[in-house]
Structure formats: C-alpha cells, structure tokens
Design a protein that fits this description.
mainly alpha, Serine Threonine Protein Phosphatase 5, Tetratricopeptide repeat, 2 domains, two-stranded antiparallel sheet, 18 helices, about 5% strand
C-alpha cells in the first residue's frame, strides 16, 4: 500500500537532505542518535482534539472571528480530508507514520551494527518513540480500549520495519493487537534509555518521560497497578508537589507574554517531553470561533469544583472580549527560509507529556484500586500548587467534599469525577480533555450560541473515532463506521 510507504520514506526527509540516500550511512551510534530527532510526530493534534471536546464552545461571531475548517470541522464532528493541511487528523496521521519510519530505520541500523552497548540507549528511545506514535494513532483513529471488544475492534497498522518500496501489504489488525505491540515496545525500551546521552533531554524520551507515557497507556488499558508503578518512577521520593507548575506563586505573578514564554519551555520542570510542531496554534487558538467561550469559562468559577476555591489558572484567562479568550500557554515561532525572507513557517513547542498528567493518572488509578487515601494525597499536592494562599486544613481535598459536589454518586465515582473536574481546567487548550472523553465515554453537546441546532455526541457515537485519511482507505484499509 503506497500511502504508508510514501509517508514512511518521507519521514526522514530532513535527515536525507544531509546524507546520501543510502541506508548504509547509518553506520555509527552518533548517526543513529541524530536520526531519532525525527522519531517524534511533528504534527499537532491539539487543534482537533480540543475542538471536539467540551472545552470548545461557540463564540457566535460568524463574521468577525476566525471560521477555519481546521477548527469548525472537528467541532461539528465532520471528517477532514486534506492531508496537506496542518492541524488536521490526516496531517497528524502522516506525521506519526513519518516518526515511526525514523524509529524503524534507526532500529534496523542498530540491528546491522550488532546491537552493541553503544547503540542501546538509542534502541530504547526508538522503541518507546515507536510505541508512542502508534498509541496516538490508535487513540484517535480506533475505538478506545475496551477489554470486552478490543480483540475485534479495528486498530491501525503497527509498522515495525522500514518501508523501502512504495508497495506493501498492511492491515489494521485489532486494538488488542496494537496494544500488545505497544506494551512490548515499552517494556523492552524503557530499561535501555540513558538520559545522559541527550543534549536537550526534554526533546527526547528520558526515563521520566517514558514512564509518564506508560501511565497514559496503562490508564487507557485499565491496568491500574501499572499506572501507579510507572507514576512512582516519575515521582521518586516526596518530590510530587515540587514537580508541578507553581501556578499559585511564580505563574500567578507572570504577565501575558512572560507566561506564554515559560509554559512550553524546556526549563519548566513540569514539561517532561516537548516537541516542535508545524502549526500556527500559538495564534489561532485565541481567535478560533469554536474554543474557550464565556460559557465554557464558567468551569473556572469557584462554585464549579469540589473545593469551592478558584484555581490560580482562572486569573490567567485573557482576551478582554468573548472573541479572544485564552490562557497564554503557546506562542508561534517563525522559521524563515533565509535571513532576509519576509515570511516563514509557523512552529510551536508542544508539551506532549507533563508532570500534572502523571499525577492525575495516578490519582485516578489509585481510586480504581481502592486506595482513596493515596488519591486524596495526590490531589492535595496538586491543589497546594493551584490555590493562592493555600491552606492545608481549610482547603484540603476530601471524600466528603467530592461526594457533596457529586450528590448521588458513590465515593469512587465522586472521586474520579473530582479528579477529572480539575484535570479539565488544567488542560484547557491542550487537547487532553478529549482523551478522557473517549476513554470514559463522556457525552458531549456543542450548542450554537445563536440557538437552533445542538450537536450531540453520545457515549457510543461512531464519530468519536476519527475517520482514516482518504488515501489510506483508497489503498485498502477498512474505514471507520459512520
């Protein structure tokens, strides 16, 4: 099938611009390590993931605000088809398979090099990076993992060899098969990673970032004990609170552009893995018609969380008017072709994995394991970095507060609901909310502010699964149901 092969071969384009198109040139550990800079998807999933979620409302400005298909189509749950258009699912599909291609070429070179100790750190990075891209693909383009149906639900092609011809044989397999391969790559890769091999560790899978990814994977897989085990590896000793963004102190004192510069910076300890992406998200997310609206902004009201206290992030909603509401988390970087060029391409740094997500994942997993006390401790650590003038007594998170906020729920559901409540606020503009929506089958409504049609997405709506790119369907892959 040519679509995957073409994508795979183009994945190493930047590398090949500086090397002959001869794979025997990948003959040293240094060259393999350099290739792995391309083993991460350089596409941005946030624009469509955020628009599909309940973090996006209709601002109602049909004429003055940006109506862009990269924003409007996912908000309406319409299939997008242009694989050349950045910030769309087809573009992200291609970006992931390009990353997978780079990982596979590196693994082939390591095999040819004899799997010596000098290659082992790169082998670990390649395996975990390959697992990550496949996980993101199966998460967006297949049904969320369900033990009862995973063995029959269509997955995505798990590519483990370099694609050297334009023709090939590919199959979607099942979600269960994809998850088994992801787990295999993770278990083999994590022990091999060596952090001291990286010049800028935050741009690579360090051991901490790899364990963070594992917490996300195992939360989807519902293997809660492994979520906790991997989260504990991210937070050694008593460093949990110190690993989180200091929203109620340092962040609270920052101005718009200062916060924008810091949030995705590699110097921020909470950023465990960041990656550049070809995207204009840093400008567009504040201007999109379907994004943070005044109605959605109500989630930040103190009355709308179990502690009844405003999180510091709520004071960092800027914009002045309905049409430009945003929290300054991202900024565009312009890369020019030449020094004298008058224009260039937009790039953003995207936090792929953060310490806060690990904490939320561990807290939820502990609730599911019946260790409510551990979950409460994690949420207290979180709130200690989120509420201005935090008091460990007056503002303590408790089971009783969770159940009072979710009347009629048992303690387990109330605790999980509370965790998700804070997590939704935390990840405004970052697309993470969509993962919880599909994982837990949370219903969504997208009402138009001007009245009339209300777009609904039920628990089992097939539009929760993004359609495969047209090129992939045309060349033989089974399309998703509609």
């Amino acid at each position: 099938m040519s679509v995957l092969a073409t994508v795979a071969l183009s994945g190493c384009k930047k590398f090949l611009e500086h090397q002959p198109d001869d794979r025997s040139e990948l003959n040293t550990p240094v060259k393999v390590a350099e290739l792995l800079a391309n083993a991460y998807p350089h596409g941005n999933y946030i624009p469509f993931a955020e628009a599909m979620s309940d973090n996006a409302g209709d601002k109602g400005n049909r004429s003055g605000n940006a109506i862009d298909i990269t924003n409007e189509s996912p908000w309406k749950y319409e299939d997008q088809v242009d694989a050349q258009l950045a910030d769309t699912p087809p573009y992200y599909w291609n970006a992931c398979y390009k990353a997978i291609s780079a990982a596979n070429y590196a693994l082939e070179a390591i095999e040819k090099g004899g799997n010596t100790e000098a290659y082992m750190a790169s082998k670990g990075e390649a395996l975990v990076a390959r697992a990550y891209s496949h996980f993101m693909l199966v998460t967006f383009f297949s049904k969320a993992y369900d033990p009862a149906t995973a063995a029959s639900d269509p997955g995505i092609p798990y590519v483990t060899t370099p694609q050297k011809t334009v023709e090939g044989s590919y199959r979607r397999g099942t979600v269960a098969e994809v998850y088994a391969q992801i787990e295999k790559d993770l278990e083999e890769g994590i022990p091999l990673i060596r952090n001291n091999t990286y010049r800028v560790p935050k741009y690579h899978f360090t051991t901490q970032a790899a364990h963070a990814f594992a917490t996300r994977f195992y939360l989807f897989k519902k293997d809660y004990l492994k979520v906790v085990d991997h989260a504990n590896a991210v937070f050694p000793g008593t460093t949990v609170a110190a690993s989180l963004r200091p929203w109620n102190t340092t962040y609270n004192a920052l101005g718009y552009y200062e916060l924008q510069a810091l949030y995705t910076n590699s110097s921020e300890p909470a950023n465990l893995l960041i990656q550049e992406s070809a995207t204009s998200w840093g400008t567009s997310y504040a201007e999109y018609n379907y994004s943070l609206s005044s109605e959605v902004q109500k989630i930040f009201n103190p009355a709308n969380n179990p502690i009844k206290r405003a999180l510091a992030i709520s004071s960092k909603v800027f914009g002045g008017t309905e049409f430009f509401l945003n929290i300054p988390k991202f900024r565009n970087h312009i890369v020019k072709e030449t020094i004298n060029a008058s224009f260039g391409e937009f790039y953003n740094m995207i936090p792929l994995l953060t310490a806060e997500e690990v904490l939320f994942n561990r807290a939820e997993a502990n609730v599911m394991l019946g260790d409510n006390a551990a979950a409460v401790n994690d949420m207290d650590a979180y709130l200690s970095k989120r509420i201005v003038n935090y008091s460990a007594t007056a503002m303590k998170f408790t089971e009783a507060k969770a159940m009072a906020f979710f009347p009629g729920m048992d303690v387990k559901d109330a605790l999980v609901g509370s965790i998700l409540n804070f997590k939704r606020q935390e990840y405004m503009h970052e697309g993470i909310r969509w993962f919880d929506i599909i994982r837990l089958k949370i219903p969504i409504t997208h009402p138009y502010i001007s009245g009339g049609e209300v777009i609904t997405l039920g628990a089992n709506d097939p539009r929760r699964v993004i359609q495969l790119p047209q090129e992939a369907i045309a060349l033989g892959l089974e399309k998703n149901a509609r």
